């Protein structure tokens, strides 16, 4: 009996540790986005660059992530989950070490680009671990939990980083991430399987099918709007007279709402026959949220809070739902490869969104930039309808084939 108790306790500890590793494997790579957002004004002041250039920092990181994501699934299959996670956390440690020591804007661009390695690996390796180690009835909940790690990063960046930066400087705020990443790189073997990869003979990849292409289009559009919104919301709030510390709290609120969204909505989506219509509803609400945000003024700061809450509850949840769709439905293709393609689209959108918004808003003090984000989300709504139609058609075709086969079998009998 005592032996059973010890074994059960060990299993619980390993299970909790496994989930914590999943959360931080998603949180640390994405922390760069929220760190740039909340610390951007301080970075620009000390390194002497314009706020609009913040978009290029995001672009360097997510642009590399989008390119590497083409091969990320094959790389994870080859390396195995344990070694891929160790590379992920090591890349984060290196990137934040360099960011904390750079002397100019160009050095910061190079340092943030290294985070793209970790971002490319994050979804394929965590999705593979879930597919391998989590029972089918718990997969959706675990996907929602690990995807909420992205918003844990937002919460941390909004609440903790500004205070540390004001007290000790932004270099210390960024440098404190390094020991955390190294700790996870060292402890990863305790909670992940030791089996190496090697099942993949090459790094060639097949083209995505029609279902996956539509989901990629949706994630590309969401990525554009979401990254631009998060990157420039604090700067926009400061222009409306909000203090920097309070503007950082907007990102924290965004993070909390995102955690709730991903944990709650992912299991709900898994119970639906087709999550595409849920995506449509969430993206529509997100577009309305941006429309409210763009009308904010020094007298109506409540619109900024509506924006942070609304985008956190809606747009953020769409990526977790998309990843859950890949794990549940084999029609999208192999999990690691499909996750890589979705990451290509999502990170491509993340890379394009901030510089696009920065360029457009310089001509119209923000209104053209916000309007463009709304238009991009409306395009995502159209693609959500197309995805729902395609999935419905494939389901009907499969049903007809099964019925025809049963009639043929009955006739033979």
Description of the molecule:
This protein has 413 residues and is an all-alpha fold. The chain has a single domain (2-191, 205-412), classed as MFS general substrate transporter like domains (Growth Hormone, Chain: A), CATH 1.20.1250.20. 83% of the residues lie in helices and 0% in strands. The chain contains 16 helices and no strands. The protein is globular and about 50 Å long. The model has no long low-confidence stretch (mean pLDDT 84). Residues 18-392 form the Major facilitator superfamily (MFS) profile domain. Its main location: membrane. Pfam families: MFS_1. Keywords: Cell membrane, Membrane, Transmembrane, Transmembrane helix.
Pick out its properties.
413 residues, Growth Hormone, Chain: A, transmembrane helix, membrane
Summarize the topology.
Layout: H1 2-47, H2 54-79, H3 81-99, H4 105-133, H5 139-147, H6 149-159, H7 161-168, H8 170-175, H9 177-187, H10 210-239, H11 244-270, H12 276-293, H13 302-313, H14 315-328, H15 335-364, H16 367-412
Helix pairs in contact: 1-2, 1-4, 1-5, 1-6, 1-10, 1-11, 2-3, 2-4, 2-15, 3-4, 3-9, 4-5, 4-15, 5-11, 5-14, 6-11, 10-11, 10-14, 10-15, 10-16, 11-13, 11-14, 12-13, 12-14, 12-16, 14-15, 15-16
Determine the strand fraction and express it as a percent band.
under 5%
SSE run: HHHHHHHHHHHHHHHH
**Largest pleated sheet:** none
| Helix amount | over 70%
Number of helices: 16
Poorly predicted runs = none
> Gyration radius, to the nearest Å?
22 Å
Q: Let me know the CATH homologous superfamily.
A: MFS general substrate transporter like domains
Task: State the domain count.
Answer: 1
Q: Average pLDDT value? A: 84
Under the CATH scheme, which class? Answer: Mainly Alpha
CATH architecture: Up-down Bundle
CATH topology value = Growth Hormone, Chain: A
Task: Sum up the overall morphology in one term.
Answer: globular
What is the tally of beta strands? 0
